[in-house]
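Re: weekly structure request thread

Next one in the queue (361 aa):
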Amino acid sequence: MPEFNQNNIDLDQLAANIKHWGGNLGFQKVSIIEPDLTYASKKLKLWLDNKYNGSMDWMAKHGEKRYVPEKLVSGTIRVISVRMNYLSDPDMIATLKDGNKAYISRYALGKDYHKIIRKKLGSLTKKIAKEIPEEQFNQRPFVDSAPVLEKPLAEQGGLGWIGKNTLLIDKTVGSWFFLGEIYTSLPLPVDNKKEVNLCGKCNACMKVCPTNAFPEPYVLDAKKCISYQTIENKGIIPKELRALMGNRVFGCDDCQIWCPWNRDPTITSEELFQPRHKLNNSSLLELFNWSESEFQEKTLGSPIRRIGYERWLRNLAVGLGNAPPSVNIIKSLNDRIPKSSEMLREHLYWALEEQNRKLNI
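Done, posted below.
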């Protein structure tokens, strides 16, 4: 890669332009970081040593690429970190308390954020490229799609602090936002200024976690996390966790909902994050009775699509087992058994046992 000719570019103005362009694209904050992931890499190693990653073997792959940015994108000396609000429906507690409703993590109600943010970052990289001859620098955008330690990077740039629930928290908007990055070899002026950690003595996120997935502050055991079980786990959900899952069928937001910094959440202005197909207010039974073709149609362009129809039914079966007793639920569960895999039947039988127990059958 040819050496960058700094004499031909006003880097201070370019940095200001990048933040302005980012704002116009819908990012609420844009920060430029000189990355240092030394501490983050040590925490990652300890987390992996404790096997808190469960079946997410990819977290242990890629070697130094995960914490040495220039190993991932040649010449990287800066990271442009961006933040975008996504919360569209703040009426979450009412849904959680209604045992007949399906709770879907708020990030997954609308269009897949990967595609939305990737497109916006693509536009931003094109704007940057127009300012500089392309052969003089490298840049590459990422959206939760590569070995990138995005939260430690965003924390270095002042986009928030990593809370006890391991999520990034901002004192003005809380934690209902997505992150994205552009790795670049441009020697831009930096905003390295970490926010003060304001979690203090509060342990609300740890206390409300349905499955007690935090062995200690700032550490998550993914194997106990409902988000992991409903999304990443491709097999059988452990029996001891099923009753604790309640009606959470795709992801879990409890450690955000009860965080004091989310007491007055900021609602997104991004239309594509608005709920689709009434997924914010649908019954467990209604979703369970979707045919496979309905599932494919209604999850098109949604992050829910990635778990596939069988795991969708698996998660909903657990939710139905936890639901108030209903003969209609029992009928729908029984109707599924003949055409289900062994993995799915395990959860259907469990749900039937729970329903029958409540009805004293």
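Residues 89 and 309 are 25 Å apart (CA to CA). The longest helix spans residues 113-131.
Next request, please.
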